[in-house]
Amino acid sequence: MIGNPTNSANGPEHRDAMLQTLTLSLEDPHGTLLGLDPVLEREGYSHDEILSAFGCIDDLLVAIAERKAAYLITPLTGAQRIADLDLVRRVLTEFGTLAWREYSSSIIALVRLMMAEGARSPDLRKRVYDAGPAAVALELRKFFSRAHGLGVLSVSDAHLAAEQLMGMLREPLYKALMLHPAGSATAADAVEPVAASIDLVLNGCARGQA
C-alpha cells in the first residue's frame, strides 16, 4: 500500500505527493462507492491533513480532476507539428488509448466519488467537470481546429468532432456505471475500440475534404 509521507511540511512538494498518492489510489475504482472517507483512510490521511494541504475536500477533488486532465491531454499538447494524416492518427490513437484506459479505471472512481460527495456541495460537480472533462474536450477541439487550419483535416465543427470521439471513448465508463462493475483494462483491450472510434471520426473528415 502507498503510505502517507512522513514529511509533515505543507509545501508544494508535500501537497503534490499527497495528490499523486490519492490519484493513484483511484486506479482501483471499487472502493469509492461510499465517498472519499474510505479512500483517505486506506491511504492513511486525516481530514486535517487534507484541509491543510488543499483548503477543503472539494478543492482536493478538483485538483485530482485537473491532474487527470493534464495527463490525458499530453499527446494533444505535445504534438507541435501536425504535418499529415498519419501523424494526426498517431496522436489521436495515443490520446484515445490513454482515455480508454482511464475511463476504464480511475475516472470511474472519480465519477462515483462525485455521485457520493456531490449532494453536499451543489457546485462541486460543475467544478470537477470544468477542471476535468471540459478541459480535455477543449484541448481535443483545439487539436481538430489546428488540423483543419493546416489543411490536414476538413472539420466544419471541431466541437462536434471532439464530442463524437469523446462519446465513443467513454464507452467503458458507461458500461461500468450502468451495467456491471469495472474490470481490469489493459492497453491491449483498448486497441480495437480506439482504432475503430478514430477511424469513424477521421473518415468523416476525409469525406468533408472530397
Automatic annotation (TrEMBL):
Sequence ranges assigned to domain Transcriptional regulator TetR C-terminal Proteobacteria type in this UniProt record: 104-202
Gene3D superfamilies, per database record: Tetracycline Repressor, domain 2
One Pfam assignment: TetR_C_7
Domain of life: Bacteria
Name of the protein this chain belongs to: TetR/AcrR family transcriptional regulator C-terminal domain-containing protein
